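Board notes (copied after class):
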Amino acid sequence: MALAIGGLLAGPVAAEGLARPEGEVFLTVSGDLATTNAPEMALFDSALLASLGPVEIRTSTIWTEGVHSFTGIPLKALTDALGVVGGTLRMSAINDYMVEVPVSDAIDEGPILAYEMDGKPMSVRDKGPLWLIYPFDSNSDYRSEVYYSRSIWQLDRIEAVN
């Protein structure tokens, strides 16, 4: 299932689970989740997603010219918040393109679910609403076809499969 992003929240996890989105959902996460905010899934709006602690990375990509600043949520923050501990993340784009990302990629200093590039929200036309970005410039291990192929854009759904 996918993640959806919602409105303003007091915090990412309420006593009974993840807070509910108040705004337009743009990410839906489903599958093997320990924490949800809807029946068998977690929905995120922009505020709920941002409540997980945005970070910024500066990196070049093979799809853009020069170095850009990307702001988003560490993949690790998302998997931690939802209690995803192993297996695979099946990530799907708006056009149903799909990639499989091992949960082991969700590490400190690892990829982020970027929602801004150079301080501006990414539209669908600009690879938004979410783009899985690896820190290609700070870790040469990420500069390979394996990681390039995982860098899905127009991401709107994730299914955790154990």
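Comment from the instructor: The chain is about 10% helix and 35% strand. Residues 4 and 43 are 4 Å apart (CA to CA).
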